[in-house]
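hiii so my PI (J.) wants the whole complex modelled not just the main chain, which honestly fair. so below is everything: two entries, each one labled with what it is. i double checked the lines twice but i was tired so who knows lol
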Amino acid sequence: MISFFEALRYNPLLLSALIAGLASSVVSGIIGSYVVVKRIVFICGSISHSVLSGIGFCLWLERAKGISWITPLQGALATGIISALLIGWIHLYYREREDSVIAALWSVGMAVGILFISQTPGFNVELTNFLIGNILWVTPHDLYILFALDLFILICVFCLHHRFLALCFDEEQAQLQGVPVNMLYLFLLVLTAVSIVLLIQVVGIILVMTMLTIPAAIANLFTTRLSRVMLIAVLLSCFFCFSGMALAYHFDWPGGATIALVAGFVYIATLPSKKSF
Amino acid sequence: METVVSLQNVSFAYQGTPVLKEISFDIKQGEFIGIIGPNGGGKTTLLKLILGFLKPSSGKISIFGKYPSSTQTDSICRISYVPQSLRFDKQFPISVLELVLGGRLSHLPWYGRFSHADKLAALEALDRVGMVDFHHRAFGNLSGGQAQRALIARALASNPNLLLLDEPTASVDAQAELDIYNILKKLQGNMTIVMVTHNLQAAIELVEKVICVQNTAVILNPQQVCEHFAFGLYHPKLLNSPPKMKS
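here's the output for the full assembly
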């Protein structure tokens, strides 16, 4: 373990990776709590996987077409928001076959991404980075974007928490009280998409659901207030990032997978305590 | 007396299957109405039409002379709805006070913090249903009767003119049922109350008018419900006979 702390001091790459992990823990805990209590985990899975299409497209533009100002992060953000709005629209107006459409978007999004990456010469290794994450890939510029998005999500949640709570608990009541529930639902999905993009930097597309659901699911076992669920989820998420990265460094394992494994292990260990509540 | 709810030839169909046909009735201010009828007869559908969650296939519904919409913000026609407590996720992390504050959402400023007055209104509403000591408890840990009372408190917190309840005594014990009826008795006259119920005795003792819903609606006086009961509930012959209005 000491070697991990020492490495943090001497390796700026590792330090910025850890900062990225902790910065995304803040949003994963908060937004993840909404995702868990609103039961939109499957929707988030679809958003996170369809984001690959944007990543692939931007990589292709950047590397194969030589448009240098485009980055995969921008592509991820744009497709995340587009697919969140699309899924939200399906949920609101095409509820009969909602799950099938969401699953279709999930796989089609990935297929588009894989196609573009395959057409990007010499960069196939990046596909693995996006799928299973490579936290060391975070640049200082990405960190600033992460912080800005963190701040944006925190401000939104601070102002909208009571409305989101009502939306998650009882949409009909919120509607009777004049809350624009459909707009709010779409906005929650957009915030979720933004968080997913942050988390992809840390754990990758395949493991992003871990960070979004497990901390909040564990926290929900121990408290009965959504605000406290969020606080506990943020702390747990930070702990998973930190311990996961330390373990990954120590054993030379992939970071994202180790973080996800730590989270999963803790979740399984805490599940039996549910009976006492 | 002012008409609060008015339905004119309202029909509703779920994907081609007719649920309600040609329903017309008026509810006046301050009345206590009971809606009874067999399962699948369209009681909840009728309630959702009045709330504006569903749009009628044909006919007109007006609430306080206006047509309900999905963005009901007019403070003059405040409608509150008490759903069945069974509908909710027991695991959902929400305290009783947070739940009742949900009835004050229309007062929430853009920055999303409830004022002291809103919190007081929520606590007062909890006091009216005898639940003020439970305000820190988790909603999911309440008994069926307590949860139902908390939901009534949420409805009262918004100072409604029209209170709609969907089987408030379904799945609660006898004492809790009595408590809920006592709460409603106290509210009687202060606001218009429309209650869907399975409990015929309550329908007879509490309410001033009974709307019997079975695809169509028949308006009866409580005394006539007894008559129905003697014939067997929802006796087709009686349902089809023209209602005798005594009031």
